[in-house]
Design a protein that fits this description.
This protein is 39% helix and 13% strand. The chain is α/β, with parallel strands linked by helices. The chain has a single domain (20-246), classed as NAD(P)-binding Rossmann-like Domain (Rossmann fold, 3-Layer(aba) Sandwich), CATH 3.40.50.720. Strands 3-2-1-4-5-6-7 form a seven-stranded parallel sheet, with helices on both faces. Strand 1 (20-24), helix 1 and strand 2 (44-49) form a beta-alpha-beta unit. It starts with 19 loop residues before the first strand and ends in a 6-residue tail after the last strand.
């Protein structure tokens, strides 16, 4: 775990007039797919990692000068990141928070509950606290990541602590949306279903689970990224407090 925020690698000039986006956890999996989609749209994209330095280094040619090592469990590191991005590119338009560990285990196991809360809720609170002042200035948006199937608040046999944390995150997202709306900033959520990728937990890739998806196939990181593109576009300028499932009907 890093002792302090690492301010990034070899800076490069901003692209005049481009939107500035921060994708947390953007060096792998769904986060990387979102970062690449935003970059291909023409946005200036910052990505973060916690411990995957080798993987981050392999992306230097794609995101030169905008790769940052941050532990979002640290309020100070989180604050330092957004201060640095704001001073470097003079604005922050969108933040896509794609950080949040998944773990199986009983809801009665206190250490699992604590880890899931810290990774999925507390980290998001740190990000929102640091990012929203910048997003108010730009009339931008914060996108959090949930998980499909929480609407009915049903029980989970193997991932109860994770589902409980993500349920709390839904409430946090909606609360932030109401708080930020008067300032012109938006807060939304994307809730993926079963999405195989290079950082997916093995427990989400079991063939018997994938076979239960109503659309008959698992989703792709690019399909999740498409939702992020819409939520960070002018087409969604009147959308806030929304939880958008990208799940192929999983757990309807």
């Amino acid at each position: 775990m890093p002792a302090a925020y690492d301010g990034g690698m070899s800076p490069q000039a901003n692209l005049e007039g481009a939107r500035v986006c921060v994708v947390t956890g953007g060096v792998r999996g769904i986060g990387l797919a979102v970062a690449r989609a935003l970059r291909d749209r023409g946005d200036v994209v910052h990505i973060t990692f916690r411990s995957s330095r080798e993987r981050a280094g392999s992306l230097e040619s794609e995101f030169s000068g905008r790769i940052h090592q941050v532990d979002f469990g640290s309020e100070q590191q989180t604050s330092d990141l957004f201060a640095h991005v704001g001073s470097m590119d003079m604005r922050i338009d969108h933040v896509i928070h794609a950080v949040g560990d998944y773990e199986t285990g009983s809801a009665s196991t206190a250490d699992v509950v604590a880890r899931m809360w810290q990774s999925n809720v507390q980290a998001a609170m740190h990000v929102a606290s640091a990012a929203c002042p910048e997003l108010r200035k730009s009339k931008g948006s914060l996108v959090l990541f949930g998980c499909a199937g929480l609407a009915g608040l049903g029980p989970r046999r193997d991932s109860a602590a994770y589902a409980a944390a993500k349920s709390a995150l839904v409430v946090l997202m909606k609360s932030l949306a109401t708080e930020e709306a008067p300032f012109g900033a938006r807060v939304n959520m994307i809730s993926p279903g079963l999405i195989p990728h290079d950082a997916a937990h093995a427990g989400t890739l079991a063939p018997e689970l994938l076979a239960k998806i109503p659309m008959g196939r698992p989703g792709t990181p690019e399909e999740v990224a498409a939702a992020a593109l819409w939520l960070t576009s002018g087409e969604s300028s009147y959308t806030t407090g929304a939880d958008i499932p990208v799940s192929g009907g999983w757990m309807l």
